[in-house]
Amino acid sequence: MKITRTTEPARAERAAPNAGSAARSTGTATQTASSDQGRVQLSNLSSRLNQLEAQFSESSFDAAKVSEIRSAISEGRYQINAGAVADKLLESATQLASRRP
Question: Do the beta carbons of residue 32 and residue 39 sit within 8 Å?
């Protein structure tokens, strides 16, 4: 019978086997070794994740429109406006070119 790990080791654990405890202490949750062993302390990464989730939940996403476009593509009735694509591509290229020092 072969016994293997059930979770993927952290990158630091793979690179340096002795760094396992340090890698675990810098994760998104750490467990204290004092008398309150059941206590979990969340790092600042969890608050950043919450900020990102809030930011993207406010974005506009129309599932019905995506479904309609998907259907139109699969049925072959989706029309591509080549002029609009070219205009957006040029606009994007102009913005990228203006950002360079």
Answer: yes
